[in-house]
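pinned: reference chain
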Amino acid sequence: MELPRRSCDDVFWPDGCHTKLIGSLRESHGIHEWSSVIAYPFDNRTRLMPFRWLDKRVVPCGARSIATTLLECGFSSTRLVLQQWNPRFSPSATVRAGHPIDLLLISSMGLHADEAYRMIRDAHRLGPDRPLILMGGPKAIYEPEDAFGSGIESAGDSADVAVTGEEYILLELLQLLADHALPGEHPLDVFRRAREARLLDGILGLVYRDPKSDDNEPRLIHTGVQRLVRDLDELPMPLAGFTCVERPSRSKTLAPEPMSLNEVRRRSFLAALSVTHGCHFNCDFCPIPAYQQSTWRHKSPERVAGEIKQLGEAMGFRYFFGTDDNFFSNRDSAEAILGAMATSNINGRPFRDCIHFLTEATVFDAYKNRDLLPLAREAGLQTLYLGIEDLSGTLIKKGQTDGRVDELFRELHQNQMEAYGMLIHHDDQPFWSKDPKRMGIANQASRLFELEAVGFHSTYITPSMGARNVEIMFDAGQVLDRVGSKQVPEAFFDGNHVIATRHRHVWLRQLQLAGAYLAFYNPINFLKTLARDLRNPHNRRRMKWQIVGASMIPISFLKLLPFTLSLAMRRVQKHKATPAKALPLFDVRTGERIQWGIHGDIPIQQEYADIAEATKDDSVVADDRTAQKTASEKDECRRNLVTLRDP
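pinned: its C-alpha cells
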C-alpha cells in the first residue's frame, strides 16, 4: 500500500495561500519572540561508500527550507542545527545553559530516526520547561506513529505532533497557535489547549496523541491527507536559510551566534535547491509518486535562475544540486528552466562558465530529451545522476536498453557533460555472468566504467517505507529482524546494508555489493584513467572520482565488516510478516482505525481501501511509445499528471 491521495480536483491549495499565510504570520503579535531550533538528526552508521565525503559538506535542502520559512514569517530567533556538524547537540543542555528553546522542530529521515528519538527523550528531561516538539521530514511523512512510540522509551517521551507533509502544514499550525496564544504564553501550553479543544482537527496532515485516550492505551489522531502548494514560486528565496546555521562544534549547547555566510560557504561544498517535484514513473520501490499525489510541480524558469544567481553572488557557490526526482520527466518545464539558466549570469559571467549544476534523471527521459543537451550545457548542467537501476532490465524496465544507454553516454560526452551511474542490486541478479542478457552487478559496474561514467553507486533493493514493495518483502519473509541477539536498526535500511533478501547466505550478497564497487573503483581503472589526456576536463573528473572511491570505499568496507561477519557467523532471523505499529492510528473524521502507508493486519477504512486498490498493479514498463504502463491506467485522473504551468 502506498500513501493515500486526494481526489485530483482537491490536490492543491488555491494559488496565493502560502504567500498569504506567511504574510499573516509576519503580522502576528506575541509569537515572534518564540525561539526555535530546527534539528537535523544524523546517524554516523550511514556514512558509507563514495558519498561519505559529501554528507558533511552540504546544508540539507529540507531542513534549510524550514529555517528559511520561519525567518520569512518573522521568527528571528531561529537556529538550524545539523548533527553531522554538531554531533553532541542536546536540547536539555542548551536550555539549561541559558538558551531557551520554545519550538523544537526535528526534520528526520528514517535512516537517522534513532538520533531523532534521542533528541526527543533529551528534550523531555526538561520537564515542564521543555519546548513544543514537532517532528517532520520523511520519517514523519511515512511513519508518523513512530514519533509517539517506536524507538522511544515511553509513550510520555514522544513528540507532541508529527507533520506528514510540507511546510504549509507547519505554517497552519503556527497560525493556529498565534491566534489562540495569550500574552507571554509558552507555545507548548497553547498547543495543549488547542489539542484539548480539538482545534487541530481542521489542519490537514497532522498526527497527534488523542488527549482523551488512556495513558495505558494511547491513541493517535490523523487529520487527513495534505494538500499541496501548486505554485512553488510562493516558497521564500533560499538565502535566508543559510544565515542561521549553527557553528560546528563538539559542544552540547548553541554558540552565541550562528555562522556567517562566508563560514557556511567554506563548510558547504554545494547548494541544494528544490527545482521540480514528481516523476511519471511508478516504481514499486519508490514512495515519491504517491507522496506527490501523481502531480508534477516546478518553480518558474525565472525563479530557478534567480535562486542560483542569488546564492552565487551572495555566497560564491559554484556547485548547485537540483533535488529533483526526475528533472527531464516533463519536457516543457525542463526546456523552459534550462532556457532561462542559459541566458542568466553571475557577476556578468554566463552560467555555462561559472556554475556546475547537477541533477537526477532516468535514462529513458534523458534519452528522449537528448536534443536538449546542448541547451543544458549552456545552462551550466554538467553532471546527470542517472537512475539506471539495472542495465539488463531484470529488476524493472524503464527504457534502459543497452544501446540506448550507450548512445546517451556518447551524447553527454559530446556536450561536455558527465554521467554518474546509479544501480540497484537485487536477488535475481548474479554477481558476474557471461550471459549478456543477464548481466551481473559486477558486469554492469565494469560496463559503466567502459562507458566513461564519472562515478558509480549501487544499493541493494530494500523496503522503502511508503512504497509498494514494503509489505511484499516483509510478508515474503525477506526482511531481516535480528542478527544474533541484535535488532536490525533503522540506520541499516540505507541500501548499503543488505537487510532484505530471499537468499540464505545474506553475507554473500553483502560481499557481492562490495565487489561491485571494486569492479569500478580499483587501481587498474585508476591507471587507465591516469593514462588518458588529463588536459581534458572529463578525464580529470574521472580521475578525481577514482581517487574519491579509492579513499572512501576501503573505509566503508571496514565499517561494514562487523555487520558482514555477524551475517556469516550468527543466526539470522527474518520477519514473518509486516510488523504492526506500536500505537493505533484513527481517522479524525470517521473515527475508524487506519494504517498509514501499510495495511498491517488491520482492515483500513473504505476510502483508503479504494485508493490502495487503484494502485495495486506494480508493473512498470517503458518503451518507445510510452514511459510507463501502471496502475494509473485504471484512473483517468491519475493517468493525466497535473502540471503547474499547464493544469
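why pinned: Residues 285 and 469 are 5 Å apart (CA to CA). The chain has a mean pLDDT of 90.
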